[in-house]
Design a protein that fits this description.
The complex is a heterodimer of chains A (593) and B (252). Chain A is built from 16 helices and 24 strands. By secondary structure, chain A is α/β, with parallel strands linked by helices. In chain A, strands 7-3-2-11-19 form a five-stranded parallel beta sheet, sandwiched between helices. Chain A starts with a strand and ends with a helix. In chain B, strand 6 and strand 7 form a beta hairpin. Chain B contains nine helices and seven strands, in the order ββαβββββαααααααα. With 252 residues, chain B is an alpha+beta fold. The chains are: A alpha/beta (593), B alpha+beta (252).
Chain lengths: 593, 252
């Protein structure tokens, strides 16, 4: 096994990992930063984010507004001190990206423009047409090449963390091209490996979004928090799940059912106005819109496509010129993947899994309970999303908490003793090699992956039932057993993607189990976790708390709870549309009284 | 994963090469069931999941934005994810790794040299007028953005390198993608690093190696038009050469 000694190791080179690397390089120029990614950084899934990133800039907006939208959007399951820190640092991160070259869309006078987004009271979403994530990622990647102390390990796959003496001391990584292992030692480690949406069947995520970092931390005893909260994005292409950005609705797109009826008015989001107003109708939050689709489908009011049921996203009234300016990627995707000219024909869309609200438990400084281990971005649960993330808060999160993670890791590394690889590294290599050489029962991992994804969709979908969740838990337990008897078809070392996929599936099964068990244990409905078996209401008496999933060897996860930090926004009724407006007015009156 | 299997099949002839087993690459044929909405990538995924788990290819976003899945489809560089089997029916369809690059395995080629080229042209803002975050954003009008916007859309898929005869003949040629990125920064009103970048492309592997074939722009899946970037830099490089002569003469 090769050995590379770094000061800081960052796993994952998407938006959060790159931002962390740059922050660490600036905070501690003398340190060597190993940046590991299983793909070249510009392939990371940040690339597929479309709509934009939040940051208060309008004179009629305020940090309080962003705070309130976020906490209410999260159905009061957010860490409010963390949300305060977050909203207070979004805008400076957006400006920083601008200085680094991010081509934010502009107003005619040259100032940065912002667009409307779901659940946001005032326009505050910075956007680069509808390729915001793409431009953020490429800007961060290209900027990161300025720093020679960032040593990239592109197309290296992490098989395990090195944990010894009660702290993390590095990781064992596999060169995908050669199949050889390297132990990277480091006094601080940042996990920034993204989400886990691929544990579901229909999803917007790239193939690489397999929850690797979550599972790595989890297996070493770090709890995964709030894993039951999985976001369905309401507007995706049926079949493939390709994302059709919320930015469409931010620009004025309408959602109609098969009768050309703006059905969202039937689900507490009205009244109807010709163009959707902020926090009304099409600009409601993602959980509510996905739930409305579920009901429409059961009422038989959806359109049938060869890829399944759908509603229609109508962009025609925006006109071709505006579509080309603001939503060029959407036009391209609709054309290529649905054969539709968005300027003349509505796009069939339906919900698909998009985002994992939960993740690796970290505090406001991105530190996990395992000394030396930090996490940022979608893989983490720093506490800003609660039970439902608002669109445009995740790209902002990457930058705000990516920077924190880089700085905190540098500070930690400065005072930590030297790291060593030792026996844990050898054990990690041996375990990965055992999988490569195992002769099991002849089963292909691809079959297990499909069964997992179908079961997750059935048990942990938009609406959930106790017995279906239980069935999913049982299926996952069986799949984990069958996983032990896998047979790989490919036993070579160079570019063995059969092997890599099998290790990924092992990660996915852990994460899926954490999701399903946390969901089963939450006997209430909140945000993206909605039950139909007697627990239809939010229950603040018993469940105003985070869930924690704890890994247990050869057993199902143990689920415990942890209190939510509420600083200044007591739990209230969560409403949008006209009722939301009334409640907000009432709240204001109380505050002023 | 289709729930009901389509009756329609198409033959995919895939170039296989495993360095530990094969002396040289050879074709292997697979019959794939397909529907009209299926991409070449989905065909490959079907092979990997059901017929041969050892087949190696890169992919991720499957929506033509991550740039991973470039390959030669019937001899032309394409993204597998937005090339559809229905358009290639009745087949057979020949799939090979991107040409002009060394093959590592099956459809996977070496990307590292391309990334080094990108890194060599200083792909970041060298501020014309440094500003702190507290001073806010730079102003940049939509017209100023247009100067570089299309070049910023490059997804680094390398199809242009596979199409470029000059790169095929000389792997050290800086190539269309890196030239587009150079122009992305040199055309940005916030940037002051033009001279440093032009100095990078003056040599024999630089901008003058291009023989203006223009295939790079034809195969680009994102209308980046790298040929235009190359042309702009040829005139800038010529002017730069002339000015540098003047500067030298003035000094002496």
């Amino acid at each position: 096994m090769e050995h590379f000694d770094a000061d800081i190791l960052i796993l994952g080179a998407g938006g959060a990992g790159l931002r962390a690397a740059i922050a660490a390089a600036e905070a501690a120029p003398e340190m060597t930063i190993a940046l590991v990614s299983k793909v070249y950084p510009m392939r990371s899934h940040t690339v597929a984010a479309e709509g934009g990133s939040a940051g208060v800039v309008r004179p009629n907006d305020s940090l309080d507004n962003h705070f309130n939208d976020t906490v209410e959007g999260g159905d009061w399951l957010c860490e409010q001190d963390v949300v305060d820190y977050f909203v207070g640092h979004c805008t400076r991160e957006m400006i920083q990206l601008e200085h680094w070259g991010c081509p934010w869309s502009r107003l005619p006078d040259g100032h940065v423009n912002v667009r409307k987004f779901g659940g946001m009271k005032i326009e505050r979403t910075w956007f680069a047409a509808d390729r915001s994530g793409f431009h953020i990622l490429h800007t961060l990647f290209q900027t990161s090449t300025k720093y020679p102390q960032i040593r990239r390990f592109d197309e290296f796959f992490c098989v395990d963390l090195i944990v010894d003496d009660g702290r993390v001391q590095g990781a064992v990584v596999l060169s995908m091209a050669s199949g050889e292992f390297t132990a990277i030692t480091a006094r601080a480690v940042v996990i920034a490996t993204g989400g886990a949406g691929r544990v579901f069947r229909q999803n917007t995520n790239g193939g690489i979004v397999t929850g690797d970092g979550m599972a790595l931390a989890y297996r070493h005893g770090v709890p995964l928090r709030d894993m039951e909260f999985v976001q369905y994005h309401p507007t995706c292409l049926p079949g493939t799940g390709i994302l059709i950005t919320e930015g469409c609705r931010g620009e004025g797109a309408l959602l109609v059912n098969k009768d050309n009826y703006r059905y969202l008015q039937d689900y507490g989001l009205g009244p109807v106005t010709p163009e959707p107003r902020n926090k009304f109708m099409e600009l409601g939050p993602r959980d509510r819109l996905s739930q409305a689709f579920w009901h429409e489908e059961r009422k038989g009011r959806t359109v049938t496509t060869p890829q399944g049921e759908a509603v229609l996203l109508d962009l025609r009234h925006l006109g071709r010129a505006k579509l080309q300016e603001r939503l060029p990627l959407i036009c391209e995707l609709a054309q290529h993947f649905a054969g539709i000219d968005a300027a003349t024909t509505p796009i069939p869309v339906r919900p698909a899994v998009h985002y994992t609200m939960g993740g690796i438990l970290v505090d406001i400084n991105t530190a996990s309970p395992l000394p030396g281990l930090f996490a940022a971005g979608e893989c983490s649960s720093v506490g800003i999303h609660g039970a439902n993330r608002l669109g445009s808060n995740s790209l902002a999160e990457l930058t705000v908490f990516g920077r924190v993670a880089g700085e905190q890791a540098a500070a930690f590394a400065r005072q930590a003793p030297a790291a060593k690889a030792g026996d844990p590294a050898k054990a990690a290599e041996a375990k990965a090699l055992a999988l490569l050489q195992s002769h099991g029962g002849g089963e292909r991992h691809a079959a297990l992956r499909v069964e997992m994804a179908v079961s997750m969709e059935k048990g942990c979908g938009i609406y959930r039932l106790g017995d279906e969740m239980l069935e999913t838990c049982n299926t996952l337990a069986t799949l984990k057993q069958r996983y032990q008897a896998l047979t790989l078809e490919d036993r070579s070392r160079a570019w063995n993607t059969d092997w890599i996929s099998a290790i990924e599936l092992g990660f996915q099964l852990e994460v899926a189990e954490a999701m399903a068990h946390a969901a089963l244990a939450r006997k209430e409905s909140r945000g993206a976790h909605q039950r139909l078996d007697g627990f239809e209401a939010r229950d603040d008496v018993n469940f105003l708390s985070h869930s924690l999933a704890h890994y247990q060897d050869d057993a199902a996860p143990r689920i415990s709870t942890m209190p939510v930090k509420i600083t200044r926004s007591p739990p209230g009724q969560r409403a949008y549309g006209a009722l939301g407006e009334q409640l907000e007015a009432a709240r204001k009156e109380t505050t002023h009284a | 994963m289709p729930e009901t299997r389509s009756d329609k099949t198409i033959e995919l002839r895939v170039l296989r090469y495993c360095p530990s087993k094969d002396a040289e690459p050879s074709f292997q044929s697979f019959q794939v069931h397909y529907t009209d909405d299926m991409s070449v990538l989905q065909g490959l995924q079907q092979i990997k999941a059901e017929l041969d788990g050892s087949l190696a290819f890169r992919w991720s976003c499957r929506m033509a934005v991550c740039g991973s899945c470039g390959m030669m489809v019937n001899g032309a560089p394409m993204l597998a994810c937005n090339t559809f089997l229905r358009e290639l029916a009745p087949g057979p369809v020949t799939l090979e790794p991107l040409q002009n690059f060394p093959i590592e395995r099956d459809l996977i080629v070496t990307v590292g040299d391309f990334v080094k080229k990108i890194e060599s042209i200083y792909p970041y803002i060298m501020p014309r007028q440094p500003k702190t975050v507290e001073q806010g954003t730079y102003l940049q009008t939509p017209a100023e953005m247009q100067e570089y916007a299309s070049f910023a859309d490059c997804i680094n898929c390398m199809l242009c390198y596979a199409a470029c005869p000059q790169f095929g003949a000389n792997p050290d040629f800086i190539g269309p993608g890196a030239m587009a990125l150079l122009q992305r920064y040199n055309g940005d009103s916030r940037d002051g690093g033009q001279q440093a970048r032009l100095d990078q492309i003056r040599g024999e592997d630089g901008v003058w190696s291009c023989t203006a074939v223009g295939l790079c722009s034809e195969v680009c899946p994102k209308q980046v038009d790298p040929a235009n970037a190359v042309n702009q830099n040829k005139s800038k490089s010529a002017l730069d050469f002339f000015l540098s002569r003047l500067r030298t003469e003035n000094v002496t």
